[in-house]
Amino acid sequence: MPPLFPFVPILFGGGSESKLRSAVQALRADQTLNQLEPLLAFFASFVLEIPLIQQIMRWDMTVLRESPWYQEILQEGVAQGIEQGIQQGVAQGIEQGIQEERRGGLERILKLRFSEIPSEISVRIQSLTLEQLEELMATALTVNSLDEFMQNLPN
């Protein structure tokens, strides 16, 4: 049954180099079945190494790229990539927002306790991580002076 030749690699006992070579010869011998060679290559890739398949047959990636299956897989991959990018962007935006809120909160606490804060402290606060800011919130509430607070600032 020549129309089934593309499925040879995935049939029982069909996953060998010799079976693939025989199927390729049979497809090439019949002009109407010649177009099934990319499909044979596709199924062969499930059971044989890609370099071997390329050595045996004309595995034209252009033909595979134009196939509806490839296009659907590509669109699904692009959609997943966009979704992941949005999720990562949203998460990063939320974290940055929380970090800005913590910076502002820390500066408010320092201003309430010590009235003015030197620009040096504000500049150093801008470079702190969220974890460092949270630790310094407690420090800002318990220190007795800005000098004491500055001693607790990470370098």
SSE topology sketch:
Elements: H1 17-29, H2 37-44, H3 50-56, H4 61-65, H5 68-114, H6 119-126, H7 130-142, H8 146-152
Helix pairs in contact: 5-7
Provide an overview of this structure.
The structure is a single chain. Helices cover 70% and strands 0% of the residues. The chain contains 8 helices and no strands. The longest helix is centred in the middle third of the chain and has 47 residues, at 68-114.
Quick take:
It is built from 8 helices and no strands.
Kindly list the characteristics that best describe this protein.
single chain, 155 residues, rod-shaped
**Percent of sequence in beta strands:** under 5%
- Binned, the helix content reads 55-70%
Order of helices and strands: HHHHHHHH
Tell me the Rg in angstroms: 32 Å
The largest pleated sheet is described as:
none
Mean pLDDT: 84
| CA-based shape | rod-shaped
Spatial separation of the terminal alpha carbons: 76 Å
What's the helix count? 8
* Protein structure class: mainly alpha
Count the beta strands: 0
Spans of at least 5 consecutive residues whose pLDDT stays below 50 are none
